[in-house]
Amino acid sequence: MGKSFAGCTATVALITRNEIICANAGDSRTVMSRNGRVKEMSEDHKPDNPGELSRIKRSGGFVEEGRVNGMLALSRALGDFEYKSNSQLQPKD
């Protein structure tokens, strides 16, 4: 069986006695309800977000019709290795 190049989104929360730490990749969302009020805990990784657009361009990519390199609707994901093969870049870039 060949190598899979599929990707996925994810969200995770670490809850301690004093903190709630949330991380996400892609457009999976985490929200919290406190006393009936909603608090957004994560931010979607979309190609047209200014920081994401800048990161995509710095890595040699482009955004076309709201998609990374005209293909991906998300600017971050787990997997999608064909978009992460530039050995000159740090993983965060």
Structural descriptors:
93 residues, mainly beta, two-stranded antiparallel sheet, two-stranded antiparallel ribbon, 8 strands
State the strand order across the main sheet.
1-8
Give unreliable regions as ranges.
none
- The fraction of residues in strands falls at 25-35%
Order of helices and strands: EEEEEHEEE
Taking the alpha carbons of the first and last residues, their distance comes to 30 Å
Number of helices: 1
How much helicity do the residues have?
A: under 10%
Oligomer: single chain
Q: How many domains, as an integer?
A: 1
Give the overall silhouette. Answer: elongated
Largest sheet: 2 strands, antiparallel
Task: Give a description of the structure.
The protein has one helix at about 50-60; strands at about 5-10, 10-15, 20-25, 30-35, 35-40, 65, 65-70, 80. The chain contains 1 helix and 8 strands. The longest helix is centred in the middle third of the chain and has 9 residues, at about 50-60. The model has no long low-confidence stretch (mean pLDDT about 85).
Detail the topology: elements first, then pairings.
Blueprint: E1 7-8, E2 10-15, E3 20-25, E4 31-34, E5 37-40, H1 50-58, E6 63-64, E7 67-68, E8 78-79
Antiparallel strand pairs: 1-8, 2-3, 4-5, 6-7
